[in-house]
Specification:
Elements: H1 7-24, E1 30-34, H2 46-56, E2 62-66, H3 67-71, H4 88-105
Parallel strand pairs: 1-2
Helix pairs in contact: 1-2
Amino acid sequence: VGSNFDILVTINNLESILNAFKSANSGVKIILTKIIPMTWGGKDVTPLNQAIQGRFLGRPGVTIVDMQQVFGANFSQYLYSDGLHPNAIGSNLMADTYYDVVNSILP
């Protein structure tokens, strides 16, 4: 989510990537993650996360992981002081979440 960030371009790029995966293997299982919240630069990831949800929710073979919700309202406790990157606790929270998601979609 940089300074030259465009939500529609990002969503269309994600669409192209997902279509390429599906073209290569129609049975592929895709885990698409909503962006973690951040305090860096006053950026609000909510509009992008809403766009991800709107475009990809219910798509066959696509599981959306809502890291914004996982981190919750007190998300700053999971970030380094840069306000952007997850600290050790945040990284462990993400790892535990992905572990549960992967186990729920794989046989």
